[in-house]
Amino acid sequence: MGETIINSEIKKGLDLLESGKALEAIAILEAYWKNHKNEPESCFYLGDALAENGDLSEAIERYRDGLKLAPEDADALTTLGDMLFETGKHKDAIACYKKVLELDPQDADALVSVGLVYNSQERTEDAINSFNQALELEPDNVFAWNALGDSLYGKGDVEGAIKAFEHGVEIDPEDPVAHFNLGELLYDLEELEEAEEECLEAVRLDPTYGMAYLTLGGICMDMDRTADAIAYFEKYLKYETSSQATEMIAEVKAVVEGLKEELKG
């Protein structure tokens, strides 16, 4: 009976989280955690809800609590690393990912995560080396190909970046991120029609892909398609809910208002 009640409490919290009701989910999962602090999963569930609500500092603390109880939980270490990375704690993030690699030296995704931190620190060659190590382990790892493409483009190797992104699309044509990355690069190269095609494929595969709508809005502005630009920017505003995107959201809202005034003539 006790186990059934526990599962139903967790399920209710996770269902609320899935439906976008983060605060309600936090209330339920926090109550559960307070009564089950000896269970690592109670910490992780609450941490996920807090992170969804933008409370990354609290989420990190809950994940640290959980990992004291389950120090070899690779998924939790990865999630903690991701949150630390997002909050700029690069050294701590790398430590988490390297712990995952100690547990499983064949974990290609952990190598990619390490590379992403290096890339954010402008350690481009270290990043590329990490991505290539991942690809040696898993040649079809789209996560690694996408990350490699970003790094190559950042160092000015446009041809190499395009090949990496295109290879990612070839491996998994159903991956919206691969299409978006290729589209974003093509947009930067001012190949607008090709960029639009890739970004449209990204949102077809994931209709909630906010960043792809943002790029589509920019493409349409450059092509003097104001009404389309407004529609795409509004979809970006609908789907982008991250607390880390506050400034961008404000900028896009201002752009939308300006474009609407422009249409009025």
Write up what this structure looks like:
By secondary structure, this protein is an all-alpha fold. The protein has a domain at 1-71: Tetratricopeptide repeat domain (Serine Threonine Protein Phosphatase 5, Tetratricopeptide repeat, Alpha Horseshoe). It is 80% helix and 0% strand. The chain has helices at 2-18, 22-35, 40-52, 56-69, 74-86, 90-103, 108-120, 124-137, 142-154, 158-171, 176-188, 192-205, 210-222, 226-239, 246-264. α6 (90-103) runs antiparallel to α7 and α9 packs antiparallel against α10 (158-171). It is globular, with a radius of gyration of 21 Å. The relative contact order is 0.05.
Rg (CA only):
21 Å
Instruction: Provide the low-confidence segments as ranges.
Output: 1-5
Largest sheet: none
Query: Beta fraction of the residues?
Result: under 5%
Q: Any idea what the CATH superfamily of the domain at 1-71 is called? A: Tetratricopeptide repeat domain
- Which structural category do the helix and sheet elements fall into? mainly alpha
Give the overall shape: globular
Short account of what is shown:
This protein is an all-alpha fold and 265 residues long. The protein is built from 15 helices and no strands. The radius of gyration is 21 Å and the shape is globular.
Architecture blueprint of SSEs:
Elements: H1 2-18, H2 22-35, H3 40-52, H4 56-69, H5 74-86, H6 90-103, H7 108-120, H8 124-137, H9 142-154, H10 158-171, H11 176-188, H12 192-205, H13 210-222, H14 226-239, H15 246-264
Features:
disordered N terminus, 15 helices, Serine Threonine Protein Phosphatase 5, Tetratricopeptide repeat, 265 residues, 80% helix, mainly alpha, globular
